Structure formats: structure tokens, C-alpha cells
Amino acid sequence: MDYEAVGLKAGLEIHQQLNTKEKLFCHSPTVIRDSAEHTGEVSRYLRVAVSEMGDVDRAAKEELMNQRLFTYYTYDTTGLVEIDEEPPAPLNPDALDIVLTIAKMFEMTPLPEIHTMRKMIVDGSATSGFQRTALVALNGAIEHAYRVETVAVEEEACQRVEDTIFSVDRLGIPLIEITTSPCMKTPEEVHDIAQYIGMTLRSTGRVKRGIGTIRQDVNVSIRDGARVEIKGVQELDLIAEVVRREVQRQLSLLAIRDELQARNALVNGEVYDVTSVFARTQSQVLKKARVILGTVLHGFNGLVGLEIQPDRRLGSEMSDYAKKCGVGGLFHTDELPAYGVTEEEVHVLKETLGAGPEDAVVIVASTEQKCRCAMQMIIRRAKMAFEGVPEETRKMLEGGSTAYMRPLPGAARMYPETDILPVPVTKEYWESIAAPELLTVKAERFVAEYGLDPGMARQMAFSEELPLFERAVSEGIRPVFAARTILASLKELSRAGISSDALSDDAIIAVMKTVEAGNAAKEAVLDILTACAKGMSVSDAVSRVAPAFSREELQDLVHGIVNDRVEFIRTRGKAALGPVMGVIMKEVRGRIDGKVVSEVLDEELGRII
Amino acid sequence: MSLNNSDPVTVRFAGVEMDGIYINRSGENAIVKLSSGYNICVPTSLCSAKEQTVPAEKPRVLPIKQDPALPLLSIISTGGTIASTVDYRTGAVSSRFTAEDILRSIPELAGIARYHTLQPFQVLSENMNPAMWQELAGTIHDEILHGSEGIIITHGTDTMLYSAAAVSFMLDTPVPVVFVGAQRSADRPSSDNAMNAICSAKAAVSQMGEVVVCMHANESDTTCALHRATRVRKNHTSRRDAFQSIGRGPVGEVSYPDGTVVPAKDAVLRGTKELRLANNLEPSCGLLQYYPGMDPAVFDAFKGYKGLVIAGTGLGHVGTDCISRIAGLTASGTTIIMTSQCQAGSVCDRVYETGRDLLDAGVIEGGSMLPEVALVKLMWVLGNATRKEDIRRLIRTNLKGELEYDLWRYA
């Protein structure tokens, strides 16, 4: 695909959780809980008031088409602010400090005062009905070629447990939002820039790590298409595929638009009750419905079922819109007969509605009220097909295709958070902030300064254990040994099912120091750490697993073993060294360095041969 | 160059040019709403006015019809924010108060009743005073007289219980009089204002027939409690269910969203009482919370007061060294009621010696009356009775559910 020819423009909005102790606007800890551990729940409705401008945010309005009662799980680690029962605390200064640090890394300009806003979100994921957010800095650069428009600090939303049940443990964890300009022109560029931004964020050492702690939203448009915002791409590896599929979807929708115009297609919006057509149907879905409504899309035959993206058709788009009314989905004649609907029923349906071979019929089945609502949405989406690509917020599906979520929100969703005072950012404060070394630069330094091989250097720099490594090195442990211990031994431990959480950094460093001082052998590191992880102190673990073995003790042992094998050694000469060494190592492995053993054995053999 | 609110401006900051709307100053800086909706704060010198575009046409406002078949309710606003709206450009919250404004903001109300709306005054609830309670009671009286079948009073929550208790004592009402407020501002999607307002309208058209406070019964949007005005207290600074009945359960419940009203067994029902207004009050009354080590001279500050309510410790005590001062006050004509600073329960000054000394000093036991309610009642009693024995007897009579029974029957 020639992405330049189709006029691809893509931008990123990256949300990364910050690793602060407390939440952004309250003092609860930033820990994620298992929803089964919840200690309470509250149930709430959300509503949107009409502004005096007469505007209601269109995305908010659509979310609230169905008044739904949301349930929120609470925990012994959450408080009143999370369930909107108490005014928020002042903005967490640690979170602001991290965001300013990142802003500095992108060479941005901070705003002199930080004003917190409320961004209306009424899908239930925020108990207050809004997410608090504040712009912190503007206009930065990524490697001179790409532009960061803004960075903002904002609150995480609730985690959805299922359907209308949310968990408030995540609500309020600080996030940084980084918005780039739509300056990327190929899917691969989007991937690379997302990766670079992610690396920059991790370079601070002050962001959360692990699945779900970073989310990428991608804005995509092509020439004649429309801006579409795709939410929640969690895996970096999928990001390019998401862009490719969105380009494909927009091109397909444009092709459908042209075909509809060529066919003189028409959506007249008339809705018919076709319940009686399916009076004796075997279709499980239709059988249990109280009402079935249908509409004719003139000139749409074959287009509703046309694939626009892997596993997605124009019909799927209409179905997404219809689901906003609480129906399970829709059937269209491009996919029928199927799902228990017979050919005969399709024939009668088309005949009843006067649909010709060029036409498609769409039906929905549910209660009267839900069906009427769903039909309006289907007709609305069908009419949009004549325009091509609607501006939308979409969510990523498994594999990289997307589904419709809601219209793009407008400025009407933002209003000031009157409960939070503005926070000044002084020139002195900004100048006192130091930009940390990028992880890529660090990796190069580990090669040059510490003699790590490039693979290990990169692995160490990007590892979550980087602070441990840097501390070990600063405490005099040889970098190569430290890196090997941290990368290899800890991996081995986790493979053996032992969580590294059970091991304190202090213990790991103490073990490395013991080895460096010659009081335990390198070979014993894994066994000692295992013992420590099971609760033993470092000194106990060393003496129990690998009691130190002095040179004198070793000399006695070697002397005895060699004496028992004098004949053998005399016969084999120097070639006896290997087998004898094997016997000795069996006794002392992990308790004294192999090099020392070889020295002592050499001396002893020299006595005989 | 001076900029005014809502002026379109161009901001040049950080090497970029952005369009926005000027909101206001913040010291040397200007607050500007960008087209993204974010407010930013930048040095004023970086903002320049843009050519004024034609002001946006006022949105077409659809007239809202009130259904003549529905019962007529009065909504009396005292400054609560039941129908406030946000200007999304400036972020300012404004309180609107025509019936149409309310119905537009809470459309569900239109299906419950017709509404006549009044706004006798507009104050923060901490600025309410006895004169306003009197005006409020008079307004309610007139509305009922002119055919209102139920009254809703929107009120800030801080002092709602004083106003509700005051109206209770001043007014005998044949229809429900429902005080309602919100603990979360109306400018947020999660505000409790709409649910509380809808439940209050349901209560106002129901079979209830007394003065009540209608607020969330718990932290969920499932039930509103109707609290008897003389037995309710704001027990939390911020929670939705801050209001709780003390020493008894609520006199009714409204389930949401269906709006079913279930009165308690002892609720006063519609039509039980004849309409009657007695809105004299004696404002020269005080309320004093005793604390250990309190300087007895504090009582001297109430010299010349017509009445004083003491919130004493436990069963109704003050330090022994205060008793002579209290005796001095009663001797010079101040009526003194003893209540307790405990959350619930009755005072009893016959158990300990200090209590008996207090009774000897002329203090009247307030039973289980909440100190705030006893204060309001004292104002009403002193405004309507002059003879000492009448005053004493009224204080010890259960007038509006502030007591479980008439204390004088047993004393």
C-alpha cells in the first residue's frame, strides 16, 4: 500500500500510569486490586445537563441514551473521593513533577499555572461523570522530526469488571497524556514513535510497568476520509496493524460511498413491523423477541455484507450503532438465510417490504422501544454511508480491527474543576528539573563504561531491575557480574516459580558482595538466592547452602583425593587433571571458586608428576 | 489593551499560535479556553484580541408545556442549586429559576406535577436567619392557601435542618412540605440534585402531610429518605447520605427511579392538619456547647438574652462552677433548656447531683430534643407565649415530633 498516495495522517495519544505512592486527587494508594476482594459497592446513575449554550456534548448524549445504573466496587484501599462522596484533595505534586520531567525530555514549554479541568465521561468509568485533566506543557519535539503538541496530567478511569460493573481501585491513579501532532505518514512510523515515547517515559524510572499501565490511542485519517480516534491499543506490536486496517476500512467505506452514488441508492427511513413474518420462525433470537422491526436500504444489496476490515462489514458498523439502544445486534439480508432464519422467511420479508433484488433489508428484534431506537440508529448510520467515513471514536478489537464506540467528543465536554486551585509552576522549579538519561543512551554507556556486551547492556537498561543494577555497581560490584546475576538468576528464580518480590534488593546485593569477597562461589548464587527467597537470612543461606570452604580445607581435601589416585595420576600424567578435578568439584561446587580449586590441584599434582 | 470575558483571542505561546476565548485574569496571567476545551493560563501579554465574530445565535429554546391534569406544586428556591447550569465556555455556574429552567434541567419533573416557582431570597445557607425562616413560612402558607398541593423548598444543606424545623413549628400544614438539597453540585453528571428533586416532587404529591427533609438514604442512587424536620441532622460533611434521622427512623422513603413513596406508620398524612400560620419568633436566643474547663464567664455573654439552649455533656451536665452563673441568668428572665451534645438519647438531670443542682437553678430539661431544634423551638415558644408556666409547658410539649411524648405529663 502506498500510504503517501492515500494521504495517511496519523497521530498518537499515549496514556501512561505514573508510579506515585498516592493517587492524583486523593491520598489512596495506587494499587490495583482483585475485584473479588471488594469490600463494598455503590450504585449510581449519571446524567448530562444541557448547558445554557443549549449544547450537550454529542458523545455524552449518545452514551446516556439508555439510563443505566452503574455499580462500583470499593476496597479497603479506596476512599470517599473515588466514589465521589468527598471533594478532591489538591493535585499530587509528585505526579506533576514526573510530568514536568517528561515535558523537559521532549523540550517542551511548561504553562505558568496548571488549571485542572473536568472532561465529561458518562460511560460509567468515572464515578463523578468526568475525568480530571490539566494541560502541563506545550510544543515539544521527538528527534527533531515529530512534534508533541501537549502533555497533560490526568486521572485514570475505573476498570470495567463486566457490563455496568466497575472497580474504583484504578480510578484516580495519575496518568500522563502525551499528544503528538498528526505527523506520521506510515503505519511503521506510528509504531516507531510509540516505541520511542514509551522508552522515554520508562527512562524516568517513575512510571508504572506491566500490562495495562500504558495505552496508546491512535488518530487516523486519509484523504477524503475522516479523523477516527482508536482507543486503547495496549500492545505496541499491534499498533501498525491497527493503522493499516483503519486505512483499509476508510478506503472500503469510500468505495461503498461511490458505489451507492452510482446505484442511486436511497435510505427513506421508513420502519415496518415485521413481527408476523417470523411468527413461526425457528431462529432462537427472533423467537424470543416481542417485536421485530425492519427497514429497506434501497440499492444496498451486497454492500451491507461487504467486508471493510478483517471480520468487519458495513453491517457490523450499523450493528454497533444499534447496540447503543440496548439491542443485541441486527440481521441483514446480505447474511441471510442463516442463524435459523429460512430462505422462505427472507423471501416473505423482502416481498412484504417491497424490497427488490438491488435492495437490502435490515431487521432488529427486541422490545418495541429498543427496536424503534435501534432502527433510528441504523438508518442514521446507513445515511452516513453516502458521506463516506464518519468521524468516530472507536475501540480496538482483538487482532487490530475496530468497532464503533461513540462520536468524537467536542469542546463542550470540558469545564473547569472548581474544587481544585490552580498550581503555579515557577521558573526556578522548571529550571531545577533535570532530564534523566534515555535508556538507549544508558545502554550504550553500559557497553562503553562497564564492558557489557550490547545485548546484555540493552536488556539491563530496559529491565525493571535497572535501579538494582545501578545501585550494585555504585556499591562496588563488578558490572558484568551484577548484570548477569540480576538478569539470569532472577529469571531462573521466576522460572522455578519463586517470585522475586520475596527477595529484597538488600539481600540480592548482600549475596553479590559475599561472592565478590570470595566467601561464596559464583556457582552458588542461584541456590543462595533461592534459600533467601524462602525466608532465610543471607548469612544463614550462605553457610547452609554453600558453607564457605577455606583454602586450607581445600588443600586437605585435594591432598586426600590425589593420594587415593596416585597410580592413576602417574599413568595418565597431565591428562589426569580433568577427571580428578571432576571428583573434587563434586565435593566443593558452589562453596569455593573453581579457579582456586584448579590452582590448588595444580600444586598438588606438581608434587606427584 | 483590555480583554473581556468571551472575547475571541489568539495566544502565542511556546512557539505555537492557538485560538481561544478569553475567560478572566489570574494575576499577571490570562486564562484562555482553547478550542480543545482546555483552559490554559498564559502571560496576558501573549494574548491578542481577534476580530469579534458575529455572536452565536441563541439556541432555539423549545417551550415546555406543563400538563394541566397534574397536581400543582410550588417550588420555593432559597438559593439551592437544584437547577443550576454550567456555561461551558466560561465554566461559570449560574442558578436559573423559572419553572421552564427547572423542567429543562430535570425533565422527569414535568411528568409528576405542574409547578409554580418562587424565589423569595437567594442566599448561601450559612447566611440564613430567623427573619428569613419567618418569610419562608409565610410564603409557604400563601402558596398552600392559593391551591398548592405540595411544597418543595430547595435549600443549601448546611443549615437546612434549622429552616425545616423552624417552618415545622410555625406552620400547621395539610400538605407535604419538602426541603431538598444536594451534596454534590449540580454541574456534575453524578450530582444527587436530580434524583433528590425528583424524589421530593414524588413526596410532595404523595399522601405525606408534614414538613420533611428529602435526601439520599444511602450512598447509592436507589432511595431517598424523608426525615421528620425536627429529628434530622447533617451527620457528614460531604456524603450524599449526610442527613440522618436521630433517635428514630425516617418518616418515609421514596424509591428511585420508580418514585414509590412509602410513609412510616407514624407519618402525619395529607389532610390531617388544618392550615395555620403562627410565625412569630424571638430571635434573641443562643446555643452554647459546654466543654470541660469552660470559663463560667462565658455564660455572662448571654446576659439579656431571652433564651439559651445548652448542649451539655452526657445526660445534660455542665461544670459545677457554671451553675451559679446559670442561676443568675434564669433569675434575670432567660429561659434555659438543657440538651445533650451526645448524638442521640434524652437528658436526665435527676441522676447526678450536678443535674439536680441545674434543675434547682431553673434549667428546663429538653428531653431528646436535638440542641439545634431546641434552639428553634425556643425562639418559637418565646415568640408566641409570655407567661412563664406557658413557656415551660410548651417547651415540654411534643409539638411537631421533636419529642417522643409530652414531658410535662410525667414530671
UniProtKB/TrEMBL annotation, chain A:
A Gene Ontology biological process term? glutaminyl-tRNAGln biosynthesis via transamidation
**What are the annotated GO cellular component locations?**
cytoplasm
Q: Name one GO molecular function term.
A: glutaminyl-tRNA synthase (glutamine-hydrolyzing) activity
This entry's Enzyme Commission designation comes to: 6.3.5.-
- Segments forming domain Asn/Gln amidotransferase: 467-605
Which keywords describe this protein according to UniProt? ATP-binding, Ligase, Nucleotide-binding, Protein biosynthesis
- SUPFAM superfamilies reported in the protein's UniProt record: GAD domain-like, GatB/YqeY motif, Glutamine synthetase/guanido kinase
Per its UniProt record, what Pfam families does this chain match? GAD, GatB_N, GatB_Yqey
The function of this protein is:
Allows the formation of correctly charged Gln-tRNA(Gln) through the transamidation of misacylated Glu-tRNA(Gln) in organisms which lack glutaminyl-tRNA synthetase. The reaction takes place in the presence of glutamine and ATP through an activated gamma-phospho-Glu-tRNA(Gln). The GatDE system is specific for glutamate and does not act on aspartate.
Protein family: Belongs to the GatB/GatE family. GatE subfamily.
Q: Which PANTHER family match?
A: GLUTAMYL-TRNA GLN AMIDOTRANSFERASE SUBUNIT B MITOCHONDRIAL AND PROKARYOTIC PET112-RELATED, GLUTAMYL-TRNA(GLN) AMIDOTRANSFERASE SUBUNIT E
The record, for NCBIfam families, names: gatE_arch, PRK04028.1
> What is its quaternary makeup?
Heterodimer of GatD and GatE.
* Name of the molecule in the record: Glutamyl-tRNA(Gln) amidotransferase subunit E
Which gene produces this protein? gatE
From TrEMBL, chain B:
| Pfam families assigned to the protein according to its UniProt record, in alphabetical order | Asparaginase (PF00710), Asparaginase_C (PF17763)
Active-site residues annotated for this sequence: T81, T157, D158, K234
Q: Which domain of life is it from?
A: Archaea
Tell me, what is one Gene Ontology molecular-function annotation carried by this entry? ATP binding
Assigned keywords, A-Z:
ATP-binding, Ligase, Nucleotide-binding, Protein biosynthesis
Q: Which SUPFAM superfamilies match?
A: GatD N-terminal domain-like, Glutaminase/Asparaginase
Q: Where is the Asparaginase/glutaminase C-terminal domain?
A: 287-394
What residues does the L-asparaginase N-terminal domain cover?
A: 74-254
The record's section on InterPro entries has: AsnA_fam, Asp/glu_Ase-like_sf, Asparaginase/glutaminase-like, Asparaginase/glutaminase_AS1, Asparaginase/glutaminase_AS2, Asparaginase_C, GatD, GatD_N_sf
What is the annotated quaternary arrangement, including any partners?
Answer: Heterodimer of GatD and GatE.
Write down the HAMAP family for this protein, in alphabetical order. Answer: GatD (MF_00586)
Kindly provide the name given to this protein in its UniProt entry: Glutamyl-tRNA(Gln) amidotransferase subunit D
